[in-house]
């Protein structure tokens, strides 16, 4: 038997992005059709007259979703949407998905039908085709892996690395709601676990919970860019939080940025709930993940076009790298923005076991 565990180095030392870099640094591309491999929301493949973009995401029970409060239909829908979000983030149109599933015998046919009802609804909503996948048994829980394929052109494709000083920083919708939705669900779960007789109190929290359980992807934004014949200079989807995803844009573009606190959009329910949980609303908007809005930059010449974009907010500006990544607070102060994001390895069972 091979022993992959002696002499082991902890993956937490590297973090998610450090680990990916570490494992893939020796890989170069061998095919000229591979325009872009690892490092953006999706890989980019040259097809001659157009580009194919491909993205994969995995969702693991206990890490990305909790069966205690995640309806399977919503899970099916969300698992597709989070992948489409990465395709839209390249300014591409998703067309196909494959769907792979590892399941323990805890899941009945009826339960899986529910999951697939959600997948079906997402395919219909976003006009995409389920074209394959894989199904296997698992000793424990459910793991989902979705691959999405989309189409765009060399003229339209938007990378993380194209932002320039003077560009305007924009976001397609309000932030922090999904994070507060998760806090609500977690709180009610704990109350239920300590006293199963108590019914959950979700009154007036439909909005934030909906943003957590059933997010939508940036289809409308991509359609708008096409309609007004413009493209962002850079783009990313906000899966890990505004701060973390802005860092990716700044790092890959070799620029800095500032965000104006007063311009960061938040739903009133997000603000109210943040205060109820003793959290600073702007911290939730900057670091809460899973909103799946698009964060993008535009050249100043396109400002008139973006001003009329439905639901869009102009939240800051791109500056020189040496000027850093800053928050201009409503009180007139300037703070560094730190990329906290999510580190899924923190929730790793192994680590939890070590701590216990
Ligand atoms: P996103 O948050 O947009 O889904 P990720 O942060 O998951 O993107 O991934 C960043 C980049 O690293 C992507 O290009 C992705 O394809 C790549 N990547 C992630 N995990 C691996 C892996 N295990 N092996 C190779 N590439 C990976
Ligand atoms: Mg992404």
Describe it:
This protein is α+β, with helices and mostly antiparallel strands and 356 residues long. It has helices at residues 15-24, 72-88, 109-126, 177-194, 206-213, 219-227, 242-253, 268-276, 281-287, 303-307, 349-355; strands at residues 34-36, 43-46, 51-60, 93-103, 129-137, 142-152, 168-171, 234-237, 255-260, 294-298, 313-320, 325-328, 334-336. Strands 8-10-7-11-9-12-13 form a 7-stranded mixed beta sheet, sandwiched between helices. A 6-stranded mixed beta sheet has the order 1-2-3-6-4-5, covered by helices on one side. Helix 2 (72-88) runs parallel beside helix 3 (109-126). The radius of gyration is 21 Å and the shape is globular. Bound molecules: adenosine-5'-diphosphate and magnesium ion.
List the topology elements:
Blueprint: H1 15-24, E1 34-36, E2 43-46, E3 51-60, H2 72-88, E4 93-103, H3 109-126, E5 129-137, E6 142-152, E7 168-171, H4 177-194, H5 206-213, H6 219-227, E8 234-237, H7 242-253, E9 255-260, H8 268-276, H9 281-287, E10 294-298, H10 303-307, E11 313-320, E12 325-328, E13 334-336, H11 349-355
Parallel strand pairs: 4-5, 9-12
Antiparallel strand pairs: 1-2, 2-3, 3-6, 4-6, 7-10, 7-11, 8-10, 9-11, 12-13
Helix pairs in contact: 2-3, 4-5
The site of adenosine-5'-diphosphate (ADP) has 9 residues, from α1.
Measured on Cα atoms, how large is the radius of gyration?
21 Å
What do we call the CATH homologous superfamily of the largest domain? PurM-like C-terminal domain
Say which molecules are bound, naming each kind only once.
Answer: adenosine-5'-diphosphate, magnesium ion
Major sheet details: 7 strands, mixed
Strand order of the largest sheet: 8-10-7-11-9-12-13
Write the H/E string, N to C. Answer: HEEEHEHEEEHHHEHEHHEHEEEH
